[in-house]
Amino acid sequence: MKKNVRVRFAPSPTGGLHLGGVRTVLYNYLFARHAGGEFVLRIEDTDQTRFVPGAEEYIIKCLEWCGMKPDEGPVSGGPYAPYRQSERKEMYRQYAEQLVKTGHAYYAFDRPEELESMRERFKTLENPSPQYDHKVRLEMRNSCSLTLEETETLLEDGVPHVIRIRMPENETVTFHDMIRGEVSFNTSLVDDKVLLKADGMPTYHLAVVIDDYLMKISHAFRGEEWLPSAPVHVLLWKYLGWEDQMPQWAHLPLILKPDGNGKLSKRDGDRLGFPVFAMNWLDPKSNELTKGFRELGFMPEAFINMLAMLGWNDGTDQEIFSVEELIQRFSIDRVHKGGAKFDFEKAKWFNHEWIKRSDASRLLPDVKQVLADNGLTITDDKLLSSVINLVKDRCTLLTDFHTQTKFFFETPAQDLEPVKGKWNEEKTKFFNAFITYLEGISDFQAAEQEAAFKDLATQHNIKPGELMMPLRLMLVGGKFGPGVFDIAAIIGKNETIHRIQLALQQLSLA
Fold first, then answer.
1. In the chain, what are the domains?
2. Which pLDDT does position 2 carry in this prediction?
C-alpha cells in the first residue's frame, strides 16, 4: 500500500536559520506539494543547554517570509501534537526502556570524570579520540559490565544514568538513499550513542525515530552531515519493530564556500561580506547581529529560486522559476550528489531578474517600506508605481530603490563638480531660455521636452550632448537614473524649473 507523503522540517531552536537549513525546508516543501502531501514543522528542542530564546519564533518568521507555511506544527497544531519535543518528553523513556529489555540498549552510570579517564586511557596515535563503543564498553560502569543486582541497586538508589544503544559488532547496515543509492556501514565503526540523557530528555537519535514513526513521516530529507548517524537510526527502526515503516531517506549535499573548499559557514559570510541567514538574527546571548537576505533587499521569490538551484535543476537551461513552477517540476532524483558552491553575485543576479520581471503592484509594498525606512513616506501609489516601472531595471536589491527613486520625491543635493570646469555663460543662457520655454507650455510630456531641448541647443550653437549631463545633475543630483526627460515629466514643470534654477545659482557662484 502506497504511503501518503508526509515530510517534516525539524530544526533545533539554537540560533538563526542558515542557508542550508532553508534549502532543506524548501526541498521538503516542494516534494510534499508536488505529491499533494503534508509538510510538518517539528521543533527538536531536547538539548536544553543549547536552547536560545526567540529562535523558534525566528524560524517560523523565516518560513512565513519564504512563503512555506507548514500544514502542521507548533503554531497551526495538527493531529500529532504536540510538535515540540520538549513537550513530548514523557513518551520517549518507554521506548528507551523497551530497547534495554530487548538487549539492544543498556544503562550507563559513568560519571564525567570516568568518561574523561576512558578517553585518556584508550588514546593512541591511530585513535586520538576514543569513542564509547564495543571495544571499551565492558571497561566502563554500565549494565553490560555490571551484574543484574548491581545495576538494579544503582537504579533504585537513583544514581544518574543514561541509556545507550548497544551497537552490534561487525555487522553491515545498508539502506537506500534517494540521492546516493545503496549506502552501507560497518557497525564496528559506530559508537554506542546516548539515546536518553540523565535528565530524561532523549537525544536526537532516539527522538527523531520515535517522532517520525508516531507522526507517520514517509520521507526524511536532511543534510549529508547526518549520514554517519544513519546506521544508528536504521537499527533503532529495526529494534523497535518498525522497520517496514521507516521513511525513505535523502541526505542532501552541502552548500559550499564560493571556492568550493568546505561547507559554507556564518564565519565565511562575515569574512566575505554576504549573508548566510534568511533574515537578520540578533543572538540574545552574545547580542551579535547576523545579516539576513531579507534585510539586504532580497525578494523571497528570488531567494527561494536561488536556493532551489543550489543543488537541483530540472534538466533544462531554465533558471528563473516561480514557486508554482518549482512545485510542478521538482523531483528528488534531480538533486545533485555533490555540494553546490554558493555564488553571491549569482544570488544577486536572481534578485535583479525577479525585480525586473515583477509588476509594480508586487513591488509597491516593499518599495514603500524601503522609502519609509529612509524617511520618505509616499502616499500616492499611482505615482510611485510609475516611478517603480521607470527604475526597476536598474535595481539589483530592493534597497536600491531608495537611491533610484528618492530624487522623484524630494529635491536632491546637486553634485555639480563634473560640469563646473566646462561651464560658461552660453550654457547659462541656454538653461534660462529652456526655463522660459517650460514656463510657457501646458502639456508637460517627455517627448516634447526632449525635442524642444535639442532645437534650443541648435539655436544656441551648443551640442545637446554637452547639456544632457548638466540637466541630469540638476534633476537627479548624480550621474544615474532613467531618461532625464522621463524624470522631468514625473516631477512636474514647477519642480523641474526649481531644480534648474537652484543649479544655475550654484554655478554662477563657482
1. 88-207 (3.90.800.10), 417-509 (1.10.10.350)
2. 45
